[in-house]
Design a protein that fits this description.
Elements (H helix, E strand, L loop, with lengths): L1 H29 L2 H23 L8 H7 L9 H16 L1 H22 L11 H22 L8 H32 L2 H25 L20 H20 L1 H22 L11 H19 L1
Length: 312
């Protein structure tokens, strides 16, 4: 049975790369990344609410009032989801799946180290060991190789400031995911139900990006979402919401059986392998970016570094 949990963790990591890729189809139809994120997160919230209702977990949401009165920070883990999803929609066409996910994973790893070493947000403190340092160095070396290889072909098409901005956005979007996980884990201890926790997280995420959308529309910084073109979205273009809901549900299920460190190491490995395949094959209507020996070396360094950081 342990083998099933290990395989599940690897597969759901791949779902994150798929989620980011297919969401581009929603963005093309809706006409604004913020509208696409609102649609996708709304689907995830509805799916998890359905699962929570079937599993009898919706009643646990009644405990939110007590949490708000004593530790309100536990209610806002969902804010990370729209940051990650919108960033992926913006970065994938510019950097490709492998480079974008590499930045996300690098941000995840360094944020995880800060949380672990500092014992922040309820995370059990771990000493900064040699494995963490070596792993962080390998991750950093790997992402430098991947990014330099990816951007070498379009140096003249974009400014250095734009490229730096994309890189910072990717690192930040990855860094918020471990923070979200820590906050949601703390909330789950209070609600005592993973599905109710996931439902609330996506409700917050949907409300957050919807508010951002309204503000940007009012200020004229993003167009009004178009709903009619959604009819032309291919069936797989709707899988982003399913992938996100599945990721949250399976993560809560798997961690008690194989541990958080092993789960994170496998999910980020799945992210990177899936993104490499998407890039290489040009799946989901993304431009094909064949995996070269240099990119393969960078990918190997990222995977090895992730394993060292999480399993040290």
């Amino acid at each position: 049975m342990t083998l099933v949990y290990l395989a599940s963790a690897l597969l759901i990591g791949g779902l994150l790369a798929v989620q980011a890729s297919v969401n581009l189809q929603l963005n093309k139809a809706v006409g604004t990344p913020y509208g696409a994120s609102t649609v996708q997160l709304g689907i995830s919230a509805a799916l998890l609410a359905l699962v929570a209702g079937i599993a009898g977990g919706l009643g646990a949401l009644g405990g939110l009032g007590e949490v708000a009165a004593h530790e309100p920070w536990k209610l806002f883990g969902g804010i990370a989801s729209p940051i990650y999803i919108t960033s992926a929609i913006l970065l994938f066409p510019r950097l490709g799946a492998l480079a974008s996910v590499g930045l996300f994973v690098t941000g995840q790893m360094f944020a995880s180290i800060v949380l672990d070493v500092g014992g922040l947000l309820g995370v059990e403190a771990r000493p900064l060991g040699a494995g963490m340092v070596l792993g962080a160095a390998a991750v950093l070396a790997g992402i430098v190789v991947v990014i330099r290889s990816q951007l070498s072909g379009n140096q003249g098409q974009t400014s250095a400031a734009d490229r730096a901005g994309w890189i910072v956005l990717g690192l930040f979007a990855g860094a918020v995911l471990p923070v979200q996980g820590a906050v949601n884990a703390a909330l789950r201890k209070d609600l005592r139900d993973p599905f109710a926790t996931g439902t609330w997280s996506f409700i917050v995420a949907t409300a957050t990006i919807a508010i951002v959308l309204v503000v940007l529309m009012t200020s004229g910084r993003t167009p009004r979402p178009q709903l009619a073109p959604l009819k032309s979205v291919p069936w797989w273009g709707w899988l982003g919401g399913v992938a996100a809901a599945t990721y949250v549900t399976v993560t809560f299920t798997v961690i008690p059986h194989i541990g958080a460190a092993t789960t994170i190491a496998l999910t980020v490995t799945g992210q990177q392998l899936a993104s490499a395949a998407i890039d290489h094959r040009g799946w989901f209507r993304l431009p094909a970016k064949p995996i070269t020996a240099v990119r393969l070396g960078g990918l190997a360094a990222l995977i090895a570094g992730c394993a060292l950081v999480q399993l040290a």
